[in-house]
Amino acid sequence: MLAAWRDDEEHALRVIDEAIQTATARGEGRALGLAHHATAVLCNGLSRYDLAFEHAQNACAYEDFGFYGWYLAELVEAGVKCGERDAATAAQSRLDDVAQVAATDWSLGVTARSRALLSEDRSAEQSYQEAVERLGHTRMTVELARAHLLYGEWLRRHNRRHDARERLRAAHDLFRGFGAGAFTARAAAELRTSGETVPSRGEAPSRSLTAQEAQIAQLAAEGLTNPEIATQLILSPHTVEWHLRKVFAKLGLTSRRQLSGALTEGDGAAS
């Protein structure tokens, strides 16, 4: 599960795939549920919500009492983010039932966070505040960080940029301290959108790219499509897309249009 939070997407997917193969061979439903959950966490961090939704649904097929609440929470977030609102609402209803049985700060805090995602009005803020307060009483720091992140995203969408930056900074710092690379990048992207410059860690972000990632990023910045890059580098379009997703996560970007500026900043820092 820890691999799903870390920077190396390739390594995480390899570990998860091995876990799925082993669990399938042994007929271990609990392990399969956890593997799909780990993939959903990874993909929610990478903002790949369609894929997160698919794996969260697969995880929820295994109604393991100990982990079912985790699966449902991922399904709610992914469902809301990718437009599968009916499925997210159904998952929230089941999550409410699970939370009432457990009645812990963790279960009630995660449920409040998920409820806020589905709220249409200002009641969302009350739920986000409850989530932050309850999760702040637990040792689940990474779940607290996610509450700050989602609350910050909500505040920014409501044009409360000062309040949003406070929450997003808290999320960014917690994720970075935990080593959750994809979620750190997601928080950084939100901070930039809110108008704040994310503090440098002393090195241009583009220096963290591998040679192949940097080459693919440069070609994409020049306007080449994935198939054109694949042809030029003798790769498959799928491999090009894979590396570009890693580039976006490392640089905290959300679109190809941002690539040129990010790579130029890296060159300036290196000179």
Molecular structure report:
This protein is an all-alpha fold. The chain folds into 2 domains: 2-193, Serine Threonine Protein Phosphatase 5, Tetratricopeptide repeat (Alpha Horseshoe), CATH 1.25.40; 205-270, Arc Repressor Mutant, subunit A (Orthogonal Bundle), CATH 1.10.10. It is built from 15 helices and no strands. It has helices spanning 2-5, 9-26, 29-45, 49-60, 68-82, 85-102, 105-118, 123-135, 141-157, 161-178, 181-193, 211-221, 226-233, 237-251, 259-270. Helix 10 packs antiparallel against helix 11 (181-193). The radius of gyration is 19 Å and the shape is globular. The model has no long low-confidence stretch (mean pLDDT 81).
What's the gyration radius in Å?
19 Å
Q: What shape does the CA trace take?
A: globular
Order of H and E elements? HHHHHHHHHHHHHHH
Major sheet size, sense and barrel closure: none
CATH architecture descriptor name of the largest domain: Alpha Horseshoe
Helix content: over 70%
Span of the ends, CA to CA: 39 Å
Mean pLDDT equals 81
CATH topology of the largest domain: Serine Threonine Protein Phosphatase 5, Tetratricopeptide repeat
* Poorly predicted ranges: none
Q: How many domain units? A: 2
Care to count the β-strands?
0
CATH class of the largest domain: Mainly Alpha
